[in-house]
């Protein structure tokens, strides 16, 4: 996952002094200031105004814009884009969820649900409206107005509402193998973002194939077939393999009780966790911990 620090390093810009001041972060740029982005998740939200011909890869989808488009990105799902005409025109803004603290919940908007479309094609009139908003954002960023953050939040919400009134872009034709690869990548991203577990009060949120399929907006059987084809392991096996790895780490490097570890890994009953662990390693969690600490 790309952090804000890594983002500023990638575009060769100095790190803002207020990045870790606890009130969230916001910034706006022209697209000429940013290099090609890798297919990955980013640890921040982003809204991009694309001008020209582009192909956008988002989760397991590929979408194409031939003129103007508005793209919404968030930390849950990896994405990238490629220019089809060599142009890098437009604007983008980046912000953290904390920037909207006490000003509404970003996740309450459909745009920031994993299954919702993210690319919206713009008419000439809508493109002019969106471009004007970004130009005003740039002016506010360079002003010394005491309440400019409120104006920037309002402009961001305006972009969100413009998109919510529109129809999303159609999914472009794409090679079946690329779709499968992206499903596999996204599944792994969703799985890995739950780890490491650093507190016994944390708990695994995505525990079974249907949880992942729901976020990926595909049928559990389709997810299972795709993962089995690419990795020769079922969805359940991939999840169990990662859970077992985390269980071994916690048993070796933490002082948590077996019941605390079982709870953190999503087990309602520690007996079920002990049965799972013994089935995989032919020894109980307690015996594994003792052998590791010898």
Automatic annotation (TrEMBL):
Specify the domain of life of the species encoding this protein: Bacteria
What terms describe the molecular function in GO for this protein?
DNA-binding transcription factor activity; sequence-specific DNA binding
InterPro entries, alphabetized: Homeodomain-like_sf, HTH_AraC, Tscrpt_reg_AraC-type_HTH
Name of one Pfam family that matches: HTH_18
UniProt cross-references to SUPFAM superfamilies, sorted A to Z: Homeodomain-like (SSF46689)
Q: Kindly state which keywords UniProt assigns to this record, in alphabetical order.
A: DNA-binding, Transcription, Transcription regulation
All residue ranges annotated as the HTH araC/xylS-type domain in the record: 181-291
Q: Give the PANTHER family listed for this entry.
A: ARAC-FAMILY TRANSCRIPTIONAL REGULATOR (PTHR43280), TRANSCRIPTIONAL REGULATORY PROTEIN (PTHR43280:SF32)
The identity of this protein, by name, is AraC family transcriptional regulator
- Its source organism is Sulfurospirillum cavolei
Q: What is the lineage of its organism?
A: Bacteria, Pseudomonadati, Campylobacterota, Epsilonproteobacteria, Campylobacterales
């Amino acid at each position: 996952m790309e952090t804000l620090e890594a983002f500023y390093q990638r575009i060769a810009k100095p790190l803002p002094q207020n990045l870790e001041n606890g009130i969230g972060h916001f910034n706006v740029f022209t697209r000429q200031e940013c290099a090609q982005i890798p297919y990955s998740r980013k640890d921040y939200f982003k809204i991009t105004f694309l001008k020209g011909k582009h192909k956008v890869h988002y989760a397991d989808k590929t979408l194409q814009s031939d003129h103007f488009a508005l793209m919404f990105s968030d930390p849950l799902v990896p994405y990238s884009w490629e220019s089809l005409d060599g142009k890098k025109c437009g604007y983008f803004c980046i912000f953290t969820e904390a920037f909207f603290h006490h000003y509404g919940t970003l996740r309450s908007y459909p745009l920031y649900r994993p299954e919702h479309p993210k690319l919206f094609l713009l008419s000439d009139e809508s493109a002019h409206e969106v471009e004007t908003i970004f130009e005003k954002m740039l002016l506010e960023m360079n002003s010394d107005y005491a309440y400019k953050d409120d104006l920037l939040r309002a402009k961001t919400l305006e972009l969100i509402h413009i998109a919510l009134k529109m129809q999303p872009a159609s999914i472009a034709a794409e090679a079946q193998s690329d779709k499968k690869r992206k499903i596999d990548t996204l599944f792994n991203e969703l799985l890995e973002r739950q780890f490491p577990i650093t507190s016994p009060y944390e708990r695994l949120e995505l525990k079974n194939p249907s949880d992942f399929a729901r976020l990926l907006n595909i049928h559990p059987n389709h997810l299972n077939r795709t993962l089995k084809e690419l990795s020769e392991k079922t969805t359940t096996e991939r999840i169990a393999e990662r859970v077992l790895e985390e269980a071994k780490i916690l048993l070796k490097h933490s002082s948590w009780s077996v019941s605390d570890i079982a709870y953190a890994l999503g087990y309602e009953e520690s007996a079920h966790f002990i049965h799972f662990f013994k089935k995989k390693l032919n020894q109980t969690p307690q015996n594994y911990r003792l052998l590791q600490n010898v």
